[in-house]
Structures are given as structure tokens and as C-alpha cells.
Design a protein that fits this description.
By secondary structure, the protein is of the alpha+beta class. Helices cover 39% and strands 16% of the residues. It has helices spanning 11-25, 29-45, 55-63, 92-110, 131-134, 189-198, 232-235, 237-254, 282-297, 313-325, 333-344, and strands spanning 8-9, 74-78, 82-86, 112-120, 139-145, 166-171, 178-183, 207-208, 214-215, 226-227, 267-274, 327-328. Strands 2-3-4-11-5-6-7 form a 7-stranded mixed beta sheet, sandwiched between helices. The chain has a 3-stranded antiparallel beta sheet with strand order 9-8-10, with no helix packed on it. It is globular, with a radius of gyration of 20 Å. 46% of the residues are buried.
Length: 350
């Protein structure tokens, strides 16, 4: 949760600050703007581990030459509705947003389009990109994996093989879109790192230690422990199956992944967009999703739950409030960016 006692920042000033940081670090203008836009978007939606909290790491990646600062992806294949890129370790926010926009344009022509991206840099919060498609009335799915990471063990195993492998889905309705952002592991590496910095533990056994024993201590990740798959010790086969699909959906379709032993921060990403008009029709689609949204909202809540919500509902409400009242960043984020701002000669936002 954000600390509302901290300074509130106007969203446009945060975006301008982050854009200046990344431009000063060497990113081309369109890439600096994309990275800043989608990091701030994550904070607006409340995904604080994947917002400006990542900016310092990204800036260091630029300084180390891990994130490429200019150029365009190589087009491996383009058959109209089916496209593959090699991202050449360009900024993930730029690659992913460009892919959603291109897939939406192609879906307008073909009804659907899929873009697989190999060797991207980290892409941040998947939910941040969904409205690029849902604002056009399109349904969108995004999946990501990191071929160089291995923090999640297959269900029943004890050694990490793959990453949390998030997926996100944007579903238009007659009202706000449904914005789903989930992962194949119960928690994430970024959250574990945050808890380690704060000296805290998880509230539940969401990890396995290096010997395969359940744990809530995030420090086990530093000793060879692993994140449990979604479903945990009882039903982790569900997260396991989801992760295997994401591996094939991203690295498999892109043609580059773990078998190639990539080094450093990287991601494989697949974006898929559907124009409902090309299927059963836009009005028919909205009739179905509108009924579903209403049925969930009107469902009697269990004890202790005020009302049944849809995925993304809290995030969109949080964003509307932040755009009006200001953004309360997670404690320590601005302080962590101050050395980078001083190094790059960029003034901190008021």
C-alpha cells in the first residue's frame, strides 16, 4: 500500500520527471516517454512493485549496457495477423506498448493478431498496457516470461526452472473494462525483495526453502529457495500448468528462450488482440460481458466482504482518485531515485 502521509505528486509531473531521467540516461525520446508512461501507470493502478520502484534498476541497466537505448526490433516473421520480433533488449515498456498498438491495428484488418517478442528487456506491469486495446473495444491478452530467471520450481520439485510468468487480460464491457493481471506463482521476486529490504516476512507459506520445506521468509530466495506456484502446496499443479503454457506461448512462439541460455535481464512477451466485431459481433460481445459483470457485482458477498468486485476495479478507482488528488508513491521510491537524478542533472518533481 502507498503511504498517504507522503508527498502527493501530480501524475503528469511524475511522467515528465521520469521521461527526463530516461532521456538523460540515453533512451531515445519515444522510448523514454513509453517507459515513464507505463511505470507511472502501474503506480496509478496500485501496482507499486512494478511502477517507479523499477526506475532505478532500469537506469542502472542502461548504464551497464544491458538495456539498449535506440533502434527498432528485428522482424523475424510477418504474415499479417502473425508477427514475431527480436526485441534486441530494447525497453520492454516501449516494445510491449508498440506491440499492443500494432496488434490492435492488425486486428482491425484481420479480426485478430498475435505478436511474439524475443529478447525484450523487462516489461513491468502487464495491466498497464491493457487499455491501449480495450479503449478501442478490443479484447487483449499479454504474457511474459524471463528465460534467464528461474525462481519457481515445477509442482512437486525443489529447484527453480522458470519465473512467475505473469499473464494479463483486458475485457471490454459496457462499463469499465475487466483488467486481469495474475501470475503462475503466488508471489513475485520483486515483492520478496521488498520484504527483505523492510525486514518483513510473508503472512503465509508462499515459498519453499532450499531443502524444499514451506517457508514465509523471503530471504530463502537468496539461498536457492523458490516461489510456490499459484495454488500452493495443495493445488500448485494449476499454477504449474499455467506456467508451462506461458513458457511455450512466449519463448516457444518467439523461437528464443531458456535453451539458448540468455544472460542478464530479459523477457519473452506475447501479445494477442481480438476485435469482437470479427467474431460474434461487438454488440453481442458486450451483451455477454455486461451480463457477466452485472452477475458478479450482484452476487451476495461472503461474511466480511463488503461487495464482490471485478478484477481491475480497485485499480481503476485508485487511478481516478490519484489523477485528481495526486499520486502517493510507495515509501522510499523517490529517495531511491534522488542519486540518479543528481547524477543525470534532472530536478526532482515538486
Amino acid at each position: 500500500m502507498a503511504d498517504t502521509t507522503e508527498t502527493l505528486y501530480q501524475a503528469d509531473k511524475l511522467r515528465a520527471f521520469a521521461t527526463s531521467l530516461f532521456a538523460a540516461a540515453g533512451l531515445e525520446d519515444d522510448k523514454a516517454e513509453a517507459v515513464s508512461r507505463f511505470l507511472v501507470e502501474a503506480d496509478l493502478l496500485g501496482h507499486t512493485t512494478h511502477g517507479l520502484a523499477l526506475a532505478g534498476w532500469y537506469l542502472q541497466s542502461i548504464a551497464d549496457g544491458v538495456m539498449k537505448v535506440s533502434g527498432a526490433p528485428d522482424v523475424i516473421s510477418d504474415r499479417g495477423p502473425a508477427i514475431a520480433w527480436n526485441g534486441k533488449r530494447l525497453p520492454g515498456a516501449w516494445l510491449t506498448s508498440e506491440a499492443v498498438k500494432l496488434a490492435s491495428d492488425r486486428a482491425a484488418q484481420y479480426g485478430t493478431a498475435t505478436i511474439a517478442i524475443a529478447d525484450s528487456h523487462h516489461i513491468g506491469c502487464l495491466a498497464a498496457y491493457l487499455t491501449l486495446a480495450t479503449d478501442r473495444g478490443y479484447m487483449v491478452s499479454i504474457a511474459s516470461s524471463s528465460p534467464s530467471g528461474a525462481q519457481v520450481a515445477p509442482f512437486g520439485g525443489t529447484r527453480g526452472v522458470y519465473t512467475p510468468n505473469p499473464v494479463a487480460h483486458g475485457i471490454p464491457t459496457p462499463g469499465d473494462p475487466i483488467l486481469i493481471d495474475i501470475s503462475a506463482s503466488i508471489t513475485t521476486v520483486n515483492m520478496a525483495q521488498r520484504l527483505i529490504r523492510e525486514g518483513r516476512q510473508y503472512e503465509h507459506d508462499w515459498l519453499l526453502d532450499e531443502n524444499g520445506n514451506p517457508s514465509r521468509d523471503p530471504r530463502v530466495i537468496e539461498r536457492g529457495g523458490t516461489l510456490l506456484p499459484t495454488g500452493g502446496l495443495d493445488h500448485g499443479q494449476k499454477g504449474y500448468g499455467m506456467a508451462l503454457h506461458v513458457e511455450a506461448f512466449t519463448q516457444g512462439l518467439a523461437g528464443y528462450g531458456r535453451v539458448d541460455s540468455p544472460k542478464g535481464t530479459n523477457a519473452a512477451v506475447t501479445v494477442q488482440v481480438f476485435d469482437p466485431e470479427a467474431f460474434g459481433g461487438r454488440d453481442a460481445f458486450l451483451r455477454q460481458t455486461g451480463w457477466l459483470a452485472d452477475a458478479c457485482h450482484s452476487n451476495p458477498p461472503r461474511p466480511g466482504v463488503p461487495r464482490v468486485r471485478l478484477p481491475g476495479e480497485n485499480g481503476l478507482a485508485r487511478k481516478r482518485k490519484a489523477l485528481t488528488d495526486g499520486v502517493a508513491l510507495f515509501p522510499g521510491i523517490m529517495a531511491s531515485l534522488k542519486p540518479h537524478a543528481e547524477r543525470l542533472g534532472v530536478a526532482l518533481p515538486a
